[in-house]
């Protein structure tokens, strides 16, 4: 609880005393947005003892992590791949709560089912040893090539995660410790000056295996032909830490954190869009919504940072270089209720494009959708059986697209749906149209409208340059004291694990900077 006096002079004197006597300084904190990072940040700063209110434009918590119900089918609307669950459960543990009271999840044995046009099919085990063994057989690739690659993936992750993912990159203190020295010593092995595709080409003989490992660039909405080779650490997250599915669906990651936050005293104001961030003398004063002004000592924005400067903080000069960054890819998703079961398919399935390089050039250089796109099919009813009626499946069919640059999405969707249906029929030997009983479609424009994500980007800025990590927006404002940022559009980036790290970095900064 922050002590406030009617006369603001007394409040200032009190604050001064607190700082000088090194007492804890409690603050009124406003979080803009109840996305996964907003929820995690709210929980973390609440744990520091602050008064926390979350303002959310939509009517529920979760941001991109939402659910959709259609004719007896349930779909996770956004993320479908869940890795590093410990980053979620540590939030319950922070409050000495048993995670299972709020949140349950199961480890998956298969990471993904991959299909190629020539009939090759690889069901990738979600652990390093089995993956290397079976991939070596399927792709006729020496076992040691795969083993070495995955060992290097671990090395890259271990050397850099404590520096690049778990700390602000924009504070001198980050660079003054032993872990940073380790990361610097490992620099030549991190492949920062090569692209991911270069690293994969040098590691494997088999073209399909190169394509499979190139795909990890899409985990943060980037191109393997541009993103630096250090991204070859991503398979480590999936194959070493494993992949999981939350009981009840992905939506429960966000909803369980929301419930914990309510139980711990965080206040939520839904359907309450923040219109403006208020400040005075380079210090945060609060926010303005349609119902008036709300005073705060600290504001944490979980809104997309591009949109934040355009709409909420128009009177402060934006960080131009940061906002000039290329946005990550977006997506078109077909949510199909299917009245049949397809035993060949699992929770995660990929139907690869024949020309991966042309696909990414089309996406990022031409800002168009490739005519033979790689298709991702997620079927959560394979794990959560009540997600579809008996004998049926809920198909989430996604193709990568560029962000919204005012392309003619109506035409693109028509064209791409035709190509997707043909490709699925061809590769799986089915006639899928006759099994689709209901449909909902999401596109970059709708993603932008529904989550405030600039150009409908799934992961904020892309990582299509070796400098991307350093250009991404800071977790604090350089212009306004008391303003902080978390979420997929700021450091360390998009995807659920990174968003959760951003919340941790932000809360740590708030704690270090004298609040609580
Ligand atoms: P967001 O989810 O972007 O939420 C921000 C919230 O802020 C929203 O609720 C919005 O309404 C609110 N807001 C914005 N402006 C205001 C305002 N002015 N006032 C009040 N509220 C405001 N990640 C994975 O890890 N695995 C995946 O498989 C995966 N697949 C994806 C598939 C799709 C289709 C999409 C869309 C994303 C996917 N991602 C995936 C990415 C992941 O969903 C995001 O990185 C993450 O959820 C972003 O969380 P966030 O905290 O940045 O907030």
- Are any ligands bound, and if so which? flavin-adenine dinucleotide
**Proportion of residues in extended strands:** 15-25%
Overall radius of gyration: 23 Å
Range of helix content: 25-40%
**Helical segment count:** 18
Which structural class fits the helix and strand makeup? alpha/beta
Strand sequence of the main sheet, in spatial order?
A: 8-7-16-17-18-15-19
First-to-last CA distance: 10 Å
> Mean pLDDT, as a whole number?
93
Low-confidence blocks of residues: none
How many extended strands?
20
Choose one word for the global shape: globular
Largest sheet: 7 strands, mixed
Based on the model shown, name its key terms.
516 residues, alpha/beta, seven-stranded mixed sheet, five-stranded parallel sheet, 18 helices, 20 strands, 19% strand, globular, binds flavin-adenine dinucleotide
């Amino acid at each position: 609880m922050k002590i406030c006096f009617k006369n603001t002079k007394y409040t200032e004197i009190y604050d001064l005393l607190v700082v000088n006597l090194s007492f804890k300084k409690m603050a009124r904190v406003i979080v803009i947005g109840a996305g996964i990072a907003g929820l995690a940040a709210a929980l973390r700063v609440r744990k520091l003892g602050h008064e926390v209110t979350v303002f959310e434009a939509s009517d529920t918590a979760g941001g991109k992590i939402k659910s959709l119900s259609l004719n007896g089918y349930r779909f996770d609307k956004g993320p479908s791949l869940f890795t590093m669950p410990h980053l979620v459960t540590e939030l319950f543990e922070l409050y000495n709560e048993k995670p299972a009271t709020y949140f349950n999840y199961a480890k998956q044995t298969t990471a993904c089912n991959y299909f190629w046009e020539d009939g090759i099919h690889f069901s990738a085990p979600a652990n390093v040893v089995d993956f290397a063994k079976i991939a070596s057989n399927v792709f006729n690739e020496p076992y040691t090539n795969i083993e070495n690659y995955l060992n290097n993936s671990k090395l890259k992750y271990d050397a850099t995660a404590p520096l690049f993912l778990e700390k602000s990159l924009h504070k001198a203190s980050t660079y003054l410790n032993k872990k940073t020295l380790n990361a610097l010593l490992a620099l030549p092995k991190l492949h920062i000056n090569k692209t991911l595709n270069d690293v994969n080409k040098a590691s494997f003989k088999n073209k399909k295996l190169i394509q499979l490992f190139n795909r990890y660039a899409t985990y943060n909405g980037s191109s393997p032909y541009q993103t630096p080779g250090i991204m070859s650490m991503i398979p480590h997250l999936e194959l070493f830490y494993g992949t999981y599915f939350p009981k009840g669906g992905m939506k429960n990651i966000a909803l369980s954190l929301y419930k914990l936050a309510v139980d711990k005293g965080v206040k939520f104001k839904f359907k309450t869009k923040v219109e403006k961030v208020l400040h005075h003398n380079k210090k945060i004063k609060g926010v303005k919504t349609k119902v008036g002004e709300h005073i705060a000592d600290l504001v944490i924005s979980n809104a997309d940072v591009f949109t934040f400067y355009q709409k909420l903080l128009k009177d402060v000069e934006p960080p131009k270089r940061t906002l000039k960054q290329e946005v990550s890819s977006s997506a078109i998703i077909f949510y199909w209720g299917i009245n049949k079961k397809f035993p060949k398919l699992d929770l995660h399935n990929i139907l690869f494009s024949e020309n991966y390089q042309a696909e990414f050039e089309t996406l990022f250089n031409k800002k168009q959708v490739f005519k033979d796109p790689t298709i991702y099919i997620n079927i959560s009813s394979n794990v959560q059986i009540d997600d579809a009626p008996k004998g049926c499946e809920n198909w989430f069919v996604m193709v990568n697209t560029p962000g919204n640059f005012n392309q003619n999405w109506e035409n693109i969707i028509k064209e791409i749906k035709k190509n997707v249906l043909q490709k699925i029929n061809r590769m799986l030997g089915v006639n899928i149209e006759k099994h689709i009983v209901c449909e909902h479609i999401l596109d970059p424009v709708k993603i932008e409208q529904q989550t405030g994500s600039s150009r409908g980007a799934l992961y904020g800025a892309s990582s299509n340059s070796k400098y991307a990590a350093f250009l991404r927006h800071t977790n604090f404002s350089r212009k306004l004291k008391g303003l902080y940022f978390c979420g997929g559009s700021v450091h360390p980036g998009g995807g659920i694990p990174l968003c959760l790290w951003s919340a941790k970095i932000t809360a740590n900064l708030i704690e270090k900077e004298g609040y609580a």
